[in-house]
Structure prediction request, 268 residues.
Amino acid sequence: MTLDALWPASWPTIAPWSGVLAALAAALAWAGALRALHRRDLAALGAALGLAAGWAVTLGLPVASPRQLAERLPLLAAGGSAAGLAMAFLAGGRAWRVALGAGTVLAAGAWWLAGAPTAAADLRRALVLIVAFGAATAVAAQELRSPARATAAFAVLLAAWWIAQPTGPWLVLAAVGVSAAFGAWPGCAPWTVPAALPVGLCLAGLAAGPVLGRGTAADWTAAAAPFAALSLGPAFAARIGGKAGAAVGWLTAGGVPLLLTWLLARGA
Prediction:
C-alpha cells in the first residue's frame, strides 16, 4: 500500500509527497538562515514553520471555519509558529513571562483542536477534550528539547499509523512531521519553550485524529507511542547507559506500544 492509496478522493488532488518536500524546504531555509544570523533561539522555530508549510501544501488552508480536526492542523501550526516567535521576543528570558505565554498558547491551542467552541454549552461538552489536548501537549513539550527528539517522535507516530492503517491523510501528515523536524537540525541548539510548545501542540493534534475518528484500540495504542517514547525513552536510556543507551531506550519505550498496535491491528 502506498501513501497515495490512503488519500481521500474528496480532498484536493495534490500529490501527498509535495507537502513533505515543502516542510523540509521551509524548515531548512528558516533554520539555516537564522543560524547564519547567530539567532539559534529563533532558528529552532524551523520545525513549527515547516509543519505549517507542509500541512498547508498537503491539505490546503481552509476557506471557511474548519470543522474536521485535520483541517485545523495547518492553522494550528501557523498560529503556533507566530506565537512561538512572539514569545521569543516578548518573554525576554523572564520565567514568569515564559510561563504566562506558554499557558496562553497551550490553552488557545487545545481549545482550537477541540473544535474552537464559543457557546457555553459547547465549551462544557468540549472541556474533556481541551484538558486532554492540553495535558498531551504539556507532556510532549517538556521532552521536545531538540530536533532529534522531535524527529524521533514523529517517526514513531509515522510507524504507528503505518501499522494501524487509519483512513484519511494521517500517514502523510506524520511524514510531513518527520520532514519538518529533520529540516530544523541546522538550528540544533537546545529547544526552549517557544520552540517546543508549537511542535507539541501539532504532535498532540496529529496523534488524536484517528482516535477521535475511528477510535479502535489500535488507534489508541498508536497515538500513545510517541508520548511513551518522549516520556520514558530518556529514563530508559539513563538506566541502560553506554553509547547505545539512548537508541535502545527510545526503541524500548516507543517499541512496546508499536508492538501492541501491531498485535491489535493483526487481530482486528
In short: Residues 10-14 have pLDDT under 50 and may be disordered.
